[in-house]
Design a protein that fits this description.
five-stranded mixed sheet; 11 helices; alpha+beta; 397 residues; Beta-Lactamase; Heat Shock Protein 90
Length: 397
């Protein structure tokens, strides 16, 4: 193993807690020493390998990560395998490549590290100095999903310990990949639930309204049918987790046009949007349920003329959105119950509701980004939410 490799091993061991040096006070003008350089290099290499590992244990991710892992370990060769065989190999000792799957099977069967010594790794290739190896299991949720193997001229105690710690770090990245995958599956399930929960009464009422115009105003019926198709194309499409605020507002506009055809002059609506926030990423179908709630439990329940106002403003690092109606309103304690799910909306027929949107926003952006409901009897209801413009979750768009 090269001198640089030993320095990297020591640095990685220190970062993982095997050796934790006491911080030393340095003069501000003094340049960092070899330890600082090794620490930086170790972190840099780990950072380069991490994105590939966060994709899970596949041929592609292993191929991208194995070169960085060999640099990190400083050994002559590194192999990554799973139950299906060798995923990736990096190193000069290609003559040992065919032995790696056999070594991996031993570890996969025992779920324990395995040291390859003696005659096992020997070969007749000229100039091959590899005479040993360390094979360590990679685990996710206690399950062995693969192996990490490092091959070199000498197998020392330090190498065994360091390969074990690197495997722990790789396993941690694979755990995060599993969490990411679980999160995506959860959000996909939520999307399917959202589509399934689109109020059947809205669909029925919209089609009934359109049918009422077929004889009296065929052109109006045709226009409404196009609006209904446009709304459903967006709401029922195979969507990603996020969309732009412009697309979400377009869906809201189509929904309100259909409801206006149903309620006539009883429903007035206003959309006021700051143009600079139209490109902001938002969770798919996050506004339409709030507007539907305002129409159904605000205007329709009041039995008189009412107005729904949607205001989207630019607030620097965030976009602020409010959905307001001038309907019957409710006591503050009932508003709180709507959010925590303890109080179902009156006449709820399976719609998405405020609680679903509130939970999604808290899961995606954090507890500080839940809905705020302001209401009082005979004073209407206002629902407010904030969307951060720059957030890691928005990268799913």
């Amino acid at each position: 193993m090269s001198t640089t490799g030993w320095v990297l091993l020591c640095a990685f061991s220190a970062l993982l807690g095997l050796v934790l040096p006491r911080p030393r006070r340095r003069h501000p003008d003094r340049q960092g020493g070899p330890t600082d350089e090794a620490t930086f290099l170790t972190l840099h290499i780990a950072a380069m390998a991490a994105p590939s590992l966060r994709a899970g244990l596949t041929h592609e991710s292993a191929r991208k990560a194995v070169r960085h892992l060999r640099t990190l370990l400083g050994t002559s060769a590194v192999a990554v395998a799973d139950g299906g065989g060798l995923l990736a190999w990096d190193g000069a000792a290609g003559c040992h490549r065919d032995h790696a799957p056999e070594h991996a099977r031993i570890v996969l069967a025992s779920a324990r590290p395995h040291v390859v010594t003696g005659e096992a790794p020997a070969c007749d290739a000229p100039g091959c100095a590899t005479r040993g190896g360390v094979v360590v299991p990679l685990t996710v949720d206690g399950r062995v999903v693969g192996t990490l193997a490092a091959y070199d001229a000498v197998v020392s105690v330090a190498l065994v310990r360091t390969v074990t710690e690197v495997a722990r770090w790789v396993s941690g990245q694979l755990e995060l990949a599993e969490v990411d995958s679980s999160r995506r599956r959860t959000m996909e399930a939520e999307m399917r639930a959202l589509r399934a929960q689109m109020s059947p009464h809205f669909v029925y009422n919209a089609l009934t309204t359109i049918a009422s115009f077929v004889r009296t105003d065929p052109e109006r019926a045709r226009e409404l049918l196009v609006e209904f198709a446009d709304f459903n194309r967006y709401a029922l499409r195979r969507a990603r987790d996020f969309t732009t605020l412009a697309e979400e507002l377009h869906c809201v506009d189509r929904y309100l046009l259909l409801e206006r055809a149903r309620f006539g002059d009883r429903l007035r609506f206003t959309l006021r949007v700051a143009p600079e926030v139209l490109s902001v990423s938002v969770p798919f179908l996050c506004l339409q349920p709030l507007v539907e709630n305002a129409v159904k439990h605000g205007v329709a329940a009041a039995g008189r003329r009412g107005e729904v106002r949607v205001v989207v403003s630019d607030a620097g690092a965030e976009a602020h959105i409010s959905v307001q109606d001038d309907g019957l309103g409710m006591p503050p304690e009932r508003a709180r119950g709507l959010l925590d799910g303890s109080v179902p909306p009156p006449g709820e027929e399976g719609g998405i509701g405020l609680a679903g949107v509130d939970v999604r926003f808290r899961q995606i952006y954090g507890e500080d980004y839940g809905l705020i409901v302001e209401s009082a009897p005979d004073a209407g209801t206002t629902v407010r939410l904030r969307v951060p413009k720059l957030h890691p979750a928005n990268s799913y768009l």
